[in-house]
Design a protein that fits this description.
Length: 346
């Protein structure tokens, strides 16, 4: 245990620490599991303040959201101590987290959990939540940043990614469509999670139900389509997000259908027709967005996403490109499944 860790744990009133070990598979913050002699366990996190530069705003958002959810009886993270850049949560005992969805029932549960999370926060009293990471899902802006990175080419990697850059060029117009609808006021801003990977949901052990949404760092004003699309991008891929077997990468329509069913079971009567129309395009847009972000990071020298091996960001990029290509062929099929779910729940 480092001195810094010791300090925050003391502030939290935690004594008898027997172990502090890295935990989870997030790409941004440092997460540790803390064991104590009394058996009480905690999650200790060091926030990556070079990414979360508005750390005090982040703290205010997390405290507001967790307190609000608790006041409504919604199970959520319990903050034990929070002193930037460190924070401590009580360990949510008995829950498990997953990096892959192996059966449709889990996908349904995850869809329902993320949709319920949006509903639970829909009435959050003013003021508007702070924008922790401005333009986080502004896909055209992500592209602009990639263009800049490619123009600077600080690591001399541009020539080796010509194929990926060329692919990105082919979807510029479509990737910006959803954000454009918000700009023109055709779809509403809502409180959204913005990082809907399945490992940000905890499952109950006995029922295997996906119950509790965690990782609240990006909860801020956003679009429903971004939560829907990002979750599908991650959960309904035949492979993991960074698979090198891109011949196997692609959208599993059965998992997609189950996820959409769960998501719409909670939102079909809440969403506007225009919002529903954005859902089928959103997984494609999010796969493109992540391809752009991973490629940008690769060209700039891997400063943002934690990398476990050389070229990891390029591997991730190629996987997202393969996924986007497959999704492009399946947009109509996704739309038909979404419409059938909406019919069922309206
Ligand atoms: P990151 O921002 O790095 O993704 P998360 O907040 O998602 O960090 O935490 C990483 C992992 O730690 C989660 O996927 C989950 O498995 C586990 N985790 C986080 N908070 C808790 C908690 N309060 N109780 C139990 N497990 C947790
Ligand atoms: C990051 O922190 P984590 O691993 O839950 C990223 C997401 C990406 C994801 C890709 C704040 O999420 O936007 O979709 O990696 N979070 C941030 O795996 O940038
Ligand atoms: Mg996470």
């Amino acid at each position: 245990m480092t001195d810094e860790q010791q300090r925050i744990l003391t502030t939290a009133g935690i004594t008898g620490v027997t172990d502090v070990a890295r935990y989870g598979s997030g790409h941004i913050n440092e997460t540790y599991k803390v064991e104590t002699a009394s058996g009480e366990r905690y999650i200790l996190q060091k926030i990556n303040t070079s990414i979360f530069t508005r750390a005090e705003l982040l703290k205010a958002n997390v405290l507001r959201v967790t307190e609000y959810l608790q006041s409504r009886g919604v199970p959520s993270l319990e903050v034990v101590a929070y002193e930037n850049p460190w924070r401590v949560y009580r360990f949510l005992e008995g829950y498990t987290s997953r990096d892959i969805v192996s059966e449709p029932r889990q996908a349904y549960d995850v869809g329902r959990a993320f949709a319920k999370f949006q509903n639970d926060l829909a009435e959050l009293p003013a003021p508007r939540l702070g924008e922790i990471l401005p333009k986080f899902h502004d896909t055209p802006d992500r592209l602009r940043q990639l263009d800049e990175a490619a123009a600077q080419d600080v690591k001399g990697r541009r020539a080796s990614v010509a194929a990926e850059l060329a692919f990105v060029d082919t979807w510029r117009e479509r990737a910006g469509r959803i954000v454009e609808l918000m700009r023109t006021g055709e779809i509403p801003e809502r409180v959204t999670h913005n990082d809907t990977k399945i490992n940000n949901v905890l499952f109950a052990p006995d029922t295997h139900e996906a119950l509790l949404v965690i990782d609240l760092d990006t909860v801020m004003p956003g679009l429903v389509a971004h939560d829907f699309g990002d979750a599908v991008r991650f959960a309904a891929n035949f492979t993991e997000e960074d698979s090198e077997h891109t011949d196997k990468t692609g959208l599993d329509l059965n998992i997609f259908w189950a996820f959409a069913d769960g998501f719409l079971s909670k939102t079909a009567s809440v969403l506007t027709p225009k919002e529903i129309d954005t859902l089928a395009l959103s997984p494609f847009v999010l796969a493109c967005e992540l391809a752009t972000r991973f490629l940008d990071d690769y060209i700039m020298g891997d400063n943002y996403f934690a990398c476990k091996k050389p070229g990891h960001n390029l591997i991730r990029t190629r996987c997202q490109v393969a996924l986007a290509k497959d999704m492009e062929q399946k947009i109509d099929a996704m739309d038909a499944l979404i419409k059938s779910c909406v019919e069922k729940y309206r």
